[in-house]
Amino acid sequence: MKKYNFNAGPCVLPREAIASAIEAIQDFDNTGIGILEISHRTPGWERVMKETADLWRELLNIPDNYKVLFLTGGASTQFFEVAANLLNKKAAYMQTGVWAKKAIKEAKFYGEVEVIASSEDKNYSYIPKNYTIPADVDYLHITTNNTIYGTEMHEDIDSPVTLVADMSSDIMSCPVDISKYGLIYGGAQKNVGPAGVSFVIVREDILGKIDRKLPAMVDYRSHISEDSMYNTPPVFSIFVMHETLKWVKNMGGVGVMHKLNKEKAAILYDVIDQSKMFVGTAAKEDRSLMNVCFVMADEHKDKEAAFLEFAKERGMVGIKGHRLVGGFRASIYNACPREAVEALAQCIRDFEDEIN
Ligand SMILES: *Cc1c(COP(=O)(O)O)cnc(C)c1O
After folding, report:
1. Going by CA atoms, what residue is nearest to atom 4 of ligand 1?
2. Which of 78, 92, 98, 102 could lock onto 185 through a cystine, CB 3.0 to 4.6 A?
3. Is 190 marked active-site?
């Protein structure tokens, strides 16, 4: 049976990237040696590293005074690495979900944290709009897409202080005005590759302003000076990221991705809004284009397991909601084809027809 992959991450990748990965495992760059077995000092590899960074620059229009880094340890390592490098006294955080909450917890190892806005009161189902950014903080940290709750900030905000963003789950899904940010980070495994590599885009002048000394692996400057090869990089993950970004470029870039993503999300949200059985959990204006979260209306709650089984029989994979929200979540990142979204929409309609 054909499977439709809606996993939240790791998740579906472009078929083209998978095909190149299979080929490279056999023989990387006509060297006669597979990608899992080459040295990261192979010239062909150094070219892939450079091309990957160049693809990032081109696709997101990254200005010259920013560096693009490929690191390990996932977004969760960036939760403390950001604070270690940037937090002298006090930082401001927006608490829009559990990932933001974890980032706050880690930052507290390095200094004072002021939570300037939180949507915890309504189980993070919206993005706070009324908040003041204090002038006396080292940076403001936001999470642009809240993967678990299906909320997303749809505009780049203006911040008087250095803006830091966890963009793990919406990077490359839409254009970003990089110049508004001091630092952007995320794990690759939602939209730009497999697990095992994370990305950091950092404006160089914000670094080196803290009083503490840092271990080399924690100091962004060590990674900058060695072009992300201070230690052995996650070669295979970066290779698949390279192929994924090539695919984004061939598709027409992030502007085209954004258009396709809006269309895909609309297909699902329309079905949910027309349904009497299912309801969306996120505030409409803050609905994520990447993670569509929905539950059963109160009077139908007893049918959740039946719907999951119904969907499974139609090849739907990964649509069970996160335990903190319940219900269902369809993650429809860049590489999720429109066909999969249409199949899920049909599945929702069919289930409702069958029950009624
Ligand atoms: C998945 C996710 C994380 C955690 O990423 P890891 O790479 O597993 O550490 C952090 N933030 C957001 C927004 C995420 O979606």
Report:
1. 75
2. 78
3. yes
9 lines ligand 1 (CB under 6 A): yes
User: From the candidates 67, 190, 246, 264, which is the catalytic residue?
Assistant: 190
Distance 299 CA to ligand 1 centre (A): 34
- Cα–Cα distance measured from residue 85 to residue 202, given in angstroms and rounded to the nearest whole number: 11
Domains in the chain (CATH in brackets) are 15-251 (3.40.640.10), 253-355 (3.90.1150.10)
Residue linked to tokens 């990237």 = 17
Residue at token pair 């939602």: 190
pTM: 0.98
Place of tokens 């991705």: 257
E-strand spans in the chain? 4-5, 66-71, 90-95, 112-118, 140-143, 145-146, 151-152, 163-166, 183-187, 198-203, 278-280, 291-296, 316-317, 328-331
Query: Is 2 known to be catalytic?
Result: no
Helix (H) or strand (E) holding 99: helix 98-107
> Which is it for strands 90-95 and 278-280: parallel, antiparallel or unpaired?
unpaired
Residues 92, 140: Cα–Cα separation, whole Å: 5
Distance in Å, CA 7 to ligand 1 centroid: 14
Asked if residue 289 has pLDDT above 90, the reply is yes
pLDDT in tens, 208-240: 999 999 999 999 999 999 999 999 999 999 999
Task: Answer whether 280 contacts ligand 1 (Cβ < 6 A).
Answer: no
64 is catalytic: no
Cβ 300 under 6 angstroms from ligand 1: no
Burial class (CB in 10 A: 0-12, 13-18, 19+), 343: middle
Distance between CA 294 and CA 313 in Å, rounded?
Answer: 19
Contact partners, residue 153, CB within 8 Å, separation at least 6: 127, 142, 144, 145, 286
